[in-house]
Design goal:
The chain has 216 residues and is of the alpha/beta class. It folds into two domains: 104 residues, 3-Layer(aba) Sandwich (Rossmann fold), CATH 3.40.50.150; 97 residues, Vaccinia Virus protein VP39 (Rossmann fold, 3-Layer(aba) Sandwich), CATH 3.40.50. The protein has seven helices and seven strands. A seven-stranded mixed sheet has the order 3-2-1-4-5-7-6, with helices on both faces. Helix 5 links the parallel strand 4 and strand 5. The two termini are 32 Å apart. Bound molecules: S-adenosylmethionine (SAM).
C-alpha cells in the first residue's frame, strides 16, 4: 500500500480513546481496554478497516483489535468505527513484529491475516506475516484450538504458507484456492479482496488451528 504522509492523521488518532498508544499497559489485562471479558480477535495489517468494521458490527460480543503500521490507513479505519458507533474495536498503530510485547500467552482467540505483503524474494521471506518465526509467536499468544484465518491473492505465498503453518505445528482445517467459488459462506470481503477479485484474481483462503500439543 503506497501512502502519502498526512500530518493531520496522528492528531486525529491521538484524540480518540479507541486508539491505543500504550498497548503494553494492557498486556496482562485486555479486558480493561474493552470494559468486558469477551473473546479477543486480531486483524494483522488491517489497512483501512473495511473487514474488521464489518466483523465488529456482526459480532458485538467479540472484542476486535486492528493493528497496522500506518496512521494514514488507521485514520480511515477509525472513521468507519465511529460512523457505525462500534464499541468493540480498538486500533493499535504498531509493528506486528512487536506483538509479543503486548499480549501474554493464551490470550487471543482468533487472528485474521488478510492480503499481507507476499515478499516474493527469498531473502525477504522472513518478513512474511505467515513465516514460521511469526507463526511461533502467534501460537504462544493464542489459546489452544483457536484459529488463524488467512486470505491472499498470491499463489506462491499461499503454497509456502501452508507449509509454514504445518512446520509451526498448526492443523489445517480448511483450504481453498478459489474462495468465492467455494462452499465457504461466512466470508467477509476485505478492501484488497474486492480489488483483486475485480481483476479476476482467485482468492486463496485457509483456516489453521493452534495445536499446542504438537511440537514445531
Ligand atoms: C495489502 S494491505 C491489506 C489491507 C487489508 N488487510 C485488506 O485486506 O484490505 C497490508 C497492510 O498490512 C500493513 N502491514 C504490513 N506489514 C506490517 C507490519 N509489520 N506491522 C503492521 N502492519 C503491517 C500495511 O501497512 C498495510 O496496511
Amino acid at each position: 500500500m503506497r501512502l502519502r504522509r498526512k500530518a493531520w492523521a496522528r492528531p486525529e488518532l491521538e484524540s480518540d480513546p479507541k486508539v491505543i498508544y500504550n498497548p503494553m499497559h494492557y498486556k496482562e489485562n485486555w479486558q480493561e481496554a474493552f470494559g468486558n471479558n469477551h473473546p479477543v480477535h486480531l486483524e494483522l495489517g488491517c489497512g483501512r478497516g473495511q473487514f474488521i468494521n464489518q466483523c465488529a458490527e456482526l459480532n458485538p460480543h467479540i472484542n476486535y483489535i486492528a493493528i497496522d503500521l500506518y496512521d494514514e490507513v488507521l485514520v480511515k479505519a477509525l472513521r468507519k468505527i465511529n460512523e457505525k458507533a462500534l464499541h468493540n474495536v480498538r486500533v493499535i498503530p504498531m509493528n506486528i513484529a512487536k506483538l509479543e510485547s503486548i499480549f501474554k500467552h493464551d490470550q487471543i482467540e482468533k487472528i485474521y491475516i488478510n492480503f499481507c505483503n507476499p515478499w516474493p524474494s527469498r531473502r525477504h521471506h522472513h518478513k512474511r506475516l505467515t513465516h514460521p518465526q511469526f507463526l511461533s509467536v502467534y501460537k504462544k499468544l493464542m489459546k489452544d484450538h483457536s484459529e488463524i484465518w488467512f486470505k491472499t491473492d498470491d499463489d506462491e505465498l499461499f503454497k509456502d504458507s501452508s507449509k509454514y503453518f504445518a512446520e509451526a505445528g498448526f492443523i489445517e482445517k480448511y483450504r481453498t484456492f478459489d474462495l468465492h467459488q467455494s462452499e465457504f459462506t461466512e466470508n467477509i470481503k476485505t478492501e484488497y479482496e474486492e480489488k483483486f477479485s475485480n481483476q479476476g484474481v482467485k482468492i486463496k483462503f485457509g483456516i489453521f488451528v493452534v495445536n499446542k500439543g504438537r511440537q514445531n
